[in-house]
């Protein structure tokens, strides 16, 4: 039998030969599903657990701390360690030779009252996900981050960018995408029930759904598409275990560029030009990191005192947290004594508003908890 890589090459060739049209859509769907399965076998061995599962490759053993975790990923010698030292004050050795850093070095950056854990990581190169160098360990660790900073040398950013994106992709990381809005319910019987809540314009239909599910040996399931998605996104949902993580591109060493060169880079989305060495533009970098970490600052106000603006309680902002979540963050049993809360700020209809525990908070609200009498 040919090697997995040879089978992958074969399928990729066949996909390239296959013209894209309605008639070949099902065939392409099958090929894509086969490809996804082979890729995860390549990463995890035959019968493979999907990329990123616990045994698929272990990350560095660094305890999570702080309010969120940001990882530095990039080619060797792009300046990751220099950046860690500049951002967090934790010294990570930096030098002009490649692979100076051989393990994961954590540091903490304080910004707007939040404690952001930053991880310096060894450099990665092409083939990292398949096990070149410490690549798998690096990318497994990147999977545990809330935000990945892809650090690039401003002098050769675009070729490196593509390679790193591919490595992250083949490890099941989907960057700057949200999880597709698809509901999958696996059933004991009843075949495939396929429903589109919105018109599908990117290749999905009942037949493609069926061939993909067949490849993954799913014969009975209800599938509801609530968003216009591609076949690849559908395969992601069925294979599972994808990590959807925001990425910010950091172009380091801009001190070595001309203004004209810098202007060309300026067109890219999600990117920040910096010089770690000269500490140029770090304020913007921190602001961009903050924007992607989805955190809220809630200030506490003890009765009769002014709010404590230096030490906000940091909450994750997805779906806007409730007053109850705020209480739980302060103390496990606080909610048992909760009577009501006074809330000032953007979430309040008047200043202050008397709120129950279901009230949803917004960034920079001020909250005073009133306990039950007795
Ligand atoms: N000109 C310039 N050089 C920089 C800058 N940042 C880092 N360097 C230099 O680039 C070299 C590599 O820096 P490191 O911080 O070791 O890079 P790294 O990405 O951690 O490297 P590995 O750990 O080997 O992957 C060192 O000689 C740094 O002094 C910068 O902003 N401008
Ligand atoms: K280096
Ligand atoms: Mg380093």
UniProtKB/TrEMBL annotation:
InterPro entries from the UniProt entry: Beta-grasp_dom_sf, DRG, G_OBG, GTP-bd, GTP-binding_2, GTP1-OBG_CS, P-loop_NTPase, Small_GTP-bd
NCBIfam families assigned: small_GTP
Entry-linked SUPFAM superfamilies: P-loop containing nucleoside triphosphate hydrolases
Signal peptide: none
OBG-type G domain location: 68-294
Keyword terms of this UniProt record: GTP-binding, Nucleotide-binding
UniProt GO MF annotations: GTP binding
Lineage per the UniProt record: Eukaryota, Sar, Stramenopiles, Ochrophyta, Bacillariophyta
Organism in which the protein naturally occurs: Stephanodiscus triporus
Keyword Cytoplasm: no
Chain ranges of the TGS domain: 294-371
Gene3D superfamilies: 3.10.20.30, P-loop containing nucleotide triphosphate hydrolases
Designated name of the protein: Uncharacterized protein
């Amino acid at each position: 039998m040919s090697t997995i890589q040879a089978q992958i090459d074969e399928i990729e060739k066949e996909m390239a030969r296959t013209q894209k049209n309605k008639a070949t859509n099902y065939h392409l769907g099958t090929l894509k599903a086969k490809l996804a399965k082979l890729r995860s076998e390549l990463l995890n061995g035959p019968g493979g657990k999907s990329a990123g599962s616990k045994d698929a490759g272990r990350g560095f053993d660094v305890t999570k701390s702080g309010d969120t975790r940001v990882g530095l990923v990039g080619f060797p010698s792009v300046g990751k360690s220099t950046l860690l030292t500049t951002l967090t004050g934790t010294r990570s050795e930096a030098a002009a030779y490649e692979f100076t850093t051989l393990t994961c070095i954590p540091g903490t950056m304080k910004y707007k009252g939040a404690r952001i854990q930053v991880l310096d990581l060894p450099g990665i190169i092409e083939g990292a996900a398949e096990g070149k160098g410490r690549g798998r360990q690096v990318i497994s660790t990147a999977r545990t981050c809330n935000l990945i900073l892809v650090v690039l040398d401003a002098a050769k950013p675009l070729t490196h960018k593509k390679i790193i994106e591919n490595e992250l992709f083949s490890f099941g990381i989907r960057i700057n995408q949200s999880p597709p809005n698809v509901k999958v319910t696996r059933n004991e019987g009843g075949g495939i029930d396929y429903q589109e809540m919105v018109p599908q314009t990117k290749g999905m239909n009942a037949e493609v759904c069926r061939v993909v599910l067949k490849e993954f040996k799913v014969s009975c399931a209800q599938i509801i598409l609530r968003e216009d998605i591609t076949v690849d996104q559908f395969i992601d949902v069925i294979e599972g275990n994808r990590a959807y993580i925001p990425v910010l591109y950091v172009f380091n060493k801009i001190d070595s560029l001309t203004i004209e060169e810098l202007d060309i880079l300026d067109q890219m989305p999600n990117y920040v030009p910096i010089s770690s060495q000269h500490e140029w533009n770090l304020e913007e970098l921190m602001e961009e990191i903050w924007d992607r970490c989805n955190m809220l600052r809630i200030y506490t106000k003890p009765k009769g005192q002014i709010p404590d603006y230096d030490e906000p309680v940091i909450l994750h902002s997805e779906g806007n947290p409730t007053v109850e979540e705020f209480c739980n963050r302060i103390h496990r049993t606080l909610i048992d004594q909760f009577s009501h809360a006074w809330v000032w700020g953007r979430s309040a209809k008047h200043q202050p508003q008397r709120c129950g525990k279901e009230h949803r908070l917004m960034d920079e609200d001020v909250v005073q908890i009133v306990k039950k009498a007795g």
